[in-house]
Amino acid sequence: MSTLFSQFFNKINSISPLEHKFTEVLDSIALKPKILYFYGKIPENVTENGVLKRPKSVAIVGARRNTRYGEEVAYKMAFELARRGVVVVSGLALGIDSIAHRAALDAGGVTVAVLGTPIDQIYPRQHEGLAKEIIERGGAVFSEYAPGEKVFPKTSFLARNRLISGLADVVVIVEAAAKSGTLSTAMHALDQGKDLFAVPGNITSPLSEGCNKLINQGAIPYTGVDDIMRILFPQRKKWAQPVIFGNNAEETGILKAISDGVSDGEQIMERLKMTASTFNQTVTLMEIKGLIRSLGANRWMMN
User: Fold this and answer.
1) Residue 200 CB burial class (10 angstroms; 0-12, 13-18, ≥19)
2) Domains detected in the chain
3) pTM, two decimal places
4) Per-residue pLDDT for the chain (303 aa), expressed as one digit of tens each?
């Protein structure tokens, strides 16, 4: 373990899933874990209409070698859910998983990672910093494997997928090839009776083949965050939209356009009746401030 993460080595906690409201849902899944090891803080109950309840949670998983489209969808989805108080669950892997964790943190929300390795072996190593930030920002990193335990990666990573789906109220597959290991999370979600979403993709893209097949088999096509909010909070007629403000009218307009799903710069300019020079100057300053980031080809997303 690297020096970066070693400060947490002596802070490993262990519980039975039944000992906490957030994890007790795992007691009802197939091959339920007897013990969970974790760093950080398990998400606490929240007040809903005056009643303490388990916080709503959504698992966002997908391809390790994602496309730009997958990055944009995963980031916006996790960001919007997290700032509405939804816990984002994923697997700390390269690609879509890490994008989902990062977006939740950027939104000031809580995210939970589930490892396929022993708790003292953060994998991949380059995500030790991300794991550290998850812990420092009020989230948790879980594993069913004790420190130093011998595991077989080919099976342990697939096995942990049942925990990712098990901790979530809703599971979303963002990108997956036809034979992706990510699809095992979808199968676990169905076995566990969870609502399963898949992000529709270009029919010529290999990384959308798995998602499109899931939709053909009955998964719910994901078209926006409200799709998920309707399932998480069916009693609400409206879902709170965070108030978005920039430092001036131009920044606020651009942020609201991006929040509404408009990422193309030309479309934003047309919508706001903004000149190219004003737009370019504004987005440059916003990018420096960390409010937005470029996806290339004059396409933008919120940070």
Assistant:
1) middle
2) 3-232 (3.40.50.450), 249-302 (1.10.10.10)
3) 0.79
4) 444 455 555 689 999 999 999 999 999 999 999 999 999 999 998 877 778 889 999 999 999 999 999 999 999 999 999 988 999 999 999 999 999 999 999 888 999 999 999 999 999 999 999 999 999 999 999 999 999 999 998 899 999 999 999 999 999 999 999 888 889 999 999 999 999 999 999 999 999 999 999 999 999 999 999 999 999 988 765 555 555 667 788 888 898 888 777 888 999 999 999 999 999 999 988 888 778 888 888 888 876
**What kind and span of H or E run contains 220?**
strand 220-221
C-beta separation of 110 from 104 below 8 A: yes
d(CA 123, CA 58): 22
